[in-house]
Amino acid sequence: MIPEKIIDTHMHIEAWDNDEYNFIDCFEGHREQSSLASLNICCLPTAQGAFANNIMVGLYKLAHPNTYAHGAFDHVIMPITENVPEGTDLVTQYRELMEIGFDGIKLIEGKPTALKPLGNNLNHPALDRVYTEMEKDGTHIVFHIKDPETFWDISKVEPWCIENGWFYGDGTYLSYEEIEKQAYALLEAHPNLKVTLAHFFFYGECPERLEALFEKYPNLCVDLTPGCEMYHSFEANHDYYKDFFRRNSERVMLGTDGTFPWATKGHVWCMDVLYRFIATSDARKAFDDAILTGINIDGAEKENILWRNFERRVGAKPKPINKEALKAYYEKYKKYMSEDTIAHIEPHIKMYLG
Ligand SMILES: [Zn+2]
After folding, report:
1. How far, in Å, from the CA of 257 to the mean position of ligand 1?
2. pLDDT per residue over 282-310, tens digit each?
3. Domains in the chain, start-ordered, CATH in brackets?
């Protein structure tokens, strides 16, 4: 139970149901138990594909209108190319998502495992064109770019990362520096992009570089979605970070990365850890069982981080879903979905869209 207003700005849905409940009940449990003012679901090109994921999340917003969502793109041909089937280019997909009622766009395209099959170019003209549109519209983006630097180093990478396929030092991925360079070029080309770099941009060990980006790009923020490693950096440099977050309170948001089908209690636990870190001076076991000491920020600075930055950037209320647009989107992109996915979606479509 969190005693004040807070928004979980970074969650995902990867399935429709688990043994206990469906995707809607799981997150509504989190909303209730964590006393969330709202939550934001970031769509992803999951196993069912981005089109299906956007639809699931659109239906979630219909069921619970006090829910924000960031839509994802489906790259129907990979590596990324300009020659996609007519009507499936990213600018068209972006316009459709906005019309349906998405509150922003989630881009996972900068994570090495996503970037590699796309052709390892974060600034491909097809992407650049949609960055231009989003920059012009002031659309909020949650952008995952790179990963912790240790994921490239076989002597430092954790076994669970390797198991997840997140070791990038085998020569088939871009280097950490190269992805970082592409990200800097992207920001340079689109200096007004309203982008939130997920996971503190993995800069826990070099916050001065992040601060330089804040200075240069007024619309750039980060989220504190773990990334356990960044919390180790925060703890090791407690006093420094206490000042850092106070100084940069307008640039930071909270998210759990809570993902369905994981159980509700994990999301609730994580939100509690994040809240205590910002709003109390509690020293407790947190990520990786390591001690994390709260930085105890208060007043307007605390409010900025807990909810105000998200509302300021995305809107004081979630956008409503346009049912006709969502239905048309389903009809248009159904042919890119597997039979199994369609079998899962159809009953929900009928229930919510008629
Ligand atoms: Zn995430």
Report:
1. 5
2. 999 999 999 999 999 999 999 999 999 99
3. 7-344 (3.20.20.140)
